[in-house]
TrEMBL record:
It comes from Parapedobacter defluvii. It comes from the Bacteria. Pfam families: DUF190. Signal peptide: none annotated. This is DUF190 domain-containing protein. InterPro entries: N-reg_PII-like_a/b, N-reg_PII/ATP_PRibTrfase_C, UPF0166. Belongs to the UPF0166 family.
């Protein structure tokens, strides 16, 4: 039996940020003042709430962002400045709406959009 391939166009955004980037707005309880939420966790949880098809976080092993110094992974080093990549996949319209809703959070971040093709076996 041979399956057929069904395709459709989707979009993908990649957001590059440091794991130490914390949210300092929103709920200001004592707990959140002492332990602010990581920006990448906020992005992932909001993507889930907004029905984004796929959200993932990837840790890099080396790199730099926004003209900063090159950061390298080492077993004994501090990895708090090593860039994370948050990847979201859905329709262009949903990704644009997500980006516009989070403009303040994403203002100084490198955000890349790319059209991708989604494959399904029939």
């Amino acid at each position: 039996m041979q399956s057929k391939l069904k395709t459709r166009a989707l979009g993908k955004i990649k957001i590059y940020l440091e794991p130490t980037h914390k949210l300092r707005h929103g709920e200001r309880s004592l707990f959140r003042k002492l332990f602010p939420k990581s920006a990448y966790l906020h992005i992932i949880s909001d993507a889930k709430k907004e029905g984004i098809l796929k959200a993932s976080v990837y840790q890099t092993h080396s790199g730099y962002s926004n003209q900063g110094p090159v950061q390298l992974f080492s077993a004994e080093g501090d990895h708090s400045k090593l860039t994370l990549c948050v990847e979201l996949i859905d329709t262009r319209e949903k990704l644009e709406a997500f980006f516009l809703k989070h403009t303040e959070l994403l203002r100084s971040k490198v955000v890349i959009y790319k059209e991708v093709e989604f494959w399904e076996a029939q």
